[in-house]
Amino acid sequence: KREGRNSIRLFIKEGHLQEHIDEVIMEAELYKALMEDELTVYYQPKLNTMTKQVHYEALVRWFSPVLGTVPPLKFIPVAEKTTLIHEVTRTVVRKVCHDLNTRPELFSDSRTSINLSACLFEPELIDTHFVQVINEYKADPSKIEIEITENMLMKDPIKGIELVNYLKELGFRVVIDDFGVSYSSLNYLRKFSLDGIKIDRSFISQIDQLNSEKDISIVHFIIQLARKLNLYVTAEGVETKEQFDILTSLGCHEIQGYYFSRPLPIEKLEHALEHFFSY
Ligand code: C2E
Ligand code: CA
Ligand code: CA
Ligand code: CA
């Protein structure tokens, strides 16, 4: 009683109440943000070191007038606990299609990848929130790549195989995001007809440090394996010239990371592209 209102803490594990309140507020704000069109999409260029071709990853951004800038790692998990993730995905797909249609010169000869949450695992959900939106905009599926994480496919591998095949029949490229972080990585390379893999940043970030032989060996192995299996390999989170040089010498097809470019709003993309030709 002495603690007044705070006495509720007695019944709830330390910190959990605040966490719960934060989540409820975030959920309510996100709902409002979707209504009021507060989400935007940034594009992070990825460079093919051989062909110099540039592709992009679309990454959602939320600048909330109430909460400030909320990183996706904070709000995507909240959206995934509810069905808001469906609306977030629709919004991202819609914005990417809009940009592809209105700025064709920026996206000629390139593909843009979109992250697909494990929550859209059902074919009907993918149809409603992904495929139909793309059809509405008459966007060309061959310009769109889908990034899915390993846990999504391994949740139910049989369904995962059907889903990948379905998306590929529709003409999308499908790649595995955050490759290597799960123990089942090698297993699904056998089972899924994928177009490529993205080596997780955790494997990349140390390769230019002293005593990095182990990390380099692992990355080398992943790249060789991928190339043998005819998979396109992207390294994510490349931040330094040393990392870039090592990855290029190991035969990695594509490099993504702050070394080239941070994710950018579409207005800044054009300028950034001019700068790329110096690499
Ligand atoms: P991810 O798919 O692995 O995306 C890569 C993340 O690494 C992005 O963070 C990107 O900004 C960041 N990054 C890129 N290059 C570098 C680098 O050189 N160094 C470092 N330290 N980081 C780098 P971001 O945009 O904050 O997104 C975080 C995660 O949120 C994404 O991880 C993805 O899982 C999720 N996410 C982002 N946008 C979407 C979306 O539209 N839909 C869904 N379902 N998830 C999304
Ligand atoms: Ca991704
Ligand atoms: Ca990733
Ligand atoms: Ca990652």
From TrEMBL:
Species, as recorded: Jeotgalibacillus terrae
Portion held of the full protein: 277 to 555 of 738
Protein name per Swiss-Prot or TrEMBL: EAL domain-containing protein
Residues in EAL domain copies: 23-277
